[in-house]
Specification:
Blueprint lengths: L9 E3 L2 E9 L3 H13 L5 E5 L7 H4 L11 H4 L15 H14 L6 E3 L2 E8 L4 E8 L1 E12 L23 E3 L14 E5 L3 H10 L5 E6 L5 E4 L4 H9 L2 H25 L1 H15 L6 H4 L12 E4 L2 H7 L3 E5 L2 E4 L3 E4 L4 E3 L2 E4 L12 E4 L2 E2 L7 E2 L3 E2 L5 E3 L8 H22 L3 E4 L8 E3 L6 H4 L7 E3 L10 H9 L8 E4 L9 E3 L4 E3 L1
Parallel strand pairs: 2-3, 2-7, 3-4, 5-18, 7-22, 8-17, 9-10, 9-17, 10-13, 11-12
Antiparallel strand pairs: 1-2, 5-6, 6-7, 14-15, 15-16, 18-19, 20-21, 23-26, 24-25, 27-28
């Protein structure tokens, strides 16, 4: 029988009874726990974490140079100032930040490690979820709500396409998601396949130690250099309290990010010229910028990669790294043969080819005995799914810091719990309009890992509250300042008399 977490209501037989089960002890899960403790202190919860440590992605990835590609004044929690000098921070610094947040607030004591959630079944008769976790043996939890905070990456396996002739290569092939702790690449020729955030991080981190690092890309990516230290934040810390300095810097960076994003989307040609001009200044004179830094799409069709302190460009300038834009014909015994006929010699090949999406950690959801078809669901306010009661999830922004969205979702979730308790409701479900709802893909983003998985994801609508706006200001208005209840939510109580459903237009409450 699993040990009951300190916040459990009660343990009944082999089932631990809780108000909320949080899935995942990463950035989102720790954040959700903080908001629950702060805004709903009487509610019991536990965090079920499949791995043996707090940190999620930041504990999983161990490849050289692993870091954030967002500044920590926006990626950090709103309630806990980021105090380090570097705002583009290493994974170890981020991990320490998340773990200190958990320890300072007693959240680490609410985590059950080695508990991988494999299934959850909703019972309308009981208005509860029965959550099954694999923890050596089967562990069961009964919860009023599930808050899925595990993101959308498949932690078990990254995206690793098979290349022609791959088995012929006599060197070593490594995927960044499964970086061996004993890998020695000193003095070796390295080819990194890929051009996304992982590749542009790994290449300068390995350069200098390796004999040479080549970034082999099929398609270029927009790359911008940013300072690793925020001079504005440093000045604010001299003049203001840490909390105030953090808040001011956070809002400055939020507005700066949004302004750049909308500049790129509204004026893509001007944005392309702007980014190209910066690249020209960063690269050696005569460099073929229009070959290696000229994506065939507009800025922010896919994420723009940030490199701190020009580290990638410095590696290119000093000759320890280079970029080759070509496609792979076949692996050979000694490297990679390109379609152009050129061969790249390598002792080590790093396949920074991306990630796989696994919706909600692959948990098998069912409602009243019927499997929940995620592809038939529509996201409500970017935090619930139609047809699945008392289930919330956390998916951050693709065009800004992930955590900005997560904080707003956690706030709204806690407001929703408080509203339900105040009115005596046991069940909450998002219900699309009866006439049908026009939909679009859940993530309107051109990244390969997203495009490969769209057919397995829920949908979103074309307008709020069924739209997932990638806009912090719009979400502040909807999630922080907007009402909890609206006509798209159905609230019910086990004690309510059975009858026809009706809608109270004043509160948007649907009662049975």
């Amino acid at each position: 029988m699993p040990a009951a977490p300190p916040s459990a209501d009660v343990t009944e037989g082999d089932v631990t009874v809780l108000d909320v089960v949080i899935v995942g002890a990463g950035v989102s899960g720790v954040g959700a726990a903080w908001y629950l403790q702060a805004m709903c202190p009487s509610m019991s919860f536990a965090i079920l974490e499949a791995r043996d440590a707090i940190g999620g992605t930041w504990d999983l990835f161990r490849y050289p140079g692993v870091r954030s590609d967002s500044d920590l004044h926006t990626f950090g929690y709103e309630f806990k100032p980021w105090r380090d000098e570097e705002s583009i921070a290493s994974a170890s610094a981020i991990l320490a930040y998340v773990r200190s947040t958990a320890a300072e607030n007693g959240i680490d004591k609410k985590v059950l490690f080695g508990h991988k959630v494999v299934a959850a079944s909703w019972s309308s008769a009981e208005a509860r979820w029965l959550v099954e976790a694999a923890a050596g043996e089967r562990a069961l939890f009964s919860a009023r709500w599930i808050f899925c905070a595990g993101g959308y990456y498949d932690y078990a396996q990254g995206y690793a396409p098979r290349f022609e002739g791959q088995d012929r290569f006599l060197g070593r092939i490594v995927h960044p998601q499964h970086w061996p702790g004993d890998l020695d690449y000193a003095g070796k020729k390295v080819v990194v396949i890929g051009s996304g955030a992982t590749a542009v991080t790994i290449v300068p981190a390995m350069a200098g130690t390796a004999a040479h690092v080549t970034m082999l890309q099929r398609t270029p990516t927009y790359i911008l250099t940013v300072p690793s230290r925020d001079a504005f934040a440093s000045r604010m810390r001299k003049w203001l309290s840490p909390e105030r300095a953090y808040a001011v810097t956070r809002w400055k960076n939020i507005n700066q990010e949004l302004a750049f994003y909308y500049f790129c989307r509204r004026f893509p040609r001007a944005a392309r010229r702007f980014i190209r001009g910066i690249n020209v200044k960063e690269l050696p004179e005569g460099y073929p910028v229009d070959v290696d830094f000229n994506p065939p799409y507009s800025p922010w069709d896919q994420r723009v990669c940030l490199v701190p302190d020009s580290d990638l460009f410095h590696s290119i300038k000093n000759g320890t790294a280079s970029i080759t834009t070509d496609s792979i014909k076949t692996f050979t015994e000694t490297g990679i043969l390109l379609t152009s006929g050129r061969e790249l010699n390598a002792d080590l090949i790093v396949t920074a080819t991306g990630l796989n999406i696994l919706p909600f950690g692959g948990v098998a959801l069912s409602v009243d005995g019927f499997p929940a078809e995620l592809t038939d669901s529509v996201a409500y306010k970017g935090m619930m799914l139609s047809g699945i009661p008392n289930f919330a999830f956390a998916i951050g922004y693709t065009n800004s810091s992930w955590t900005l969205k997560i904080g707003l979702v956690c706030e709204h979730f806690c407001r929703l719990l408080g509203y339900m308790r105040e009115h005596g409701f046991d069940r909450c479900e998002a219900v699309p309009p009866g006439a049908g709802l026009p939909t679009q893909p859940l993530l309107n983003f051109g990244a390969g890992y997203v495009q490969r998985s769209l057919q397995r994801l829920p949908k979103q609508g074309l307008a709020q509250p069924w739209l997932m706006p990638m806009n912090y200001r719009a979400d502040v208005k909807m999630l922080r300042k907007g009402p909890v209840a609206d006509p798209s939510l159905s609230f019910t109580s086990l004690e309510a008399e059975t009858g026809d459903m009706f809608c109270d237009a004043g509160h948007g409450i649907r009662l049975r």
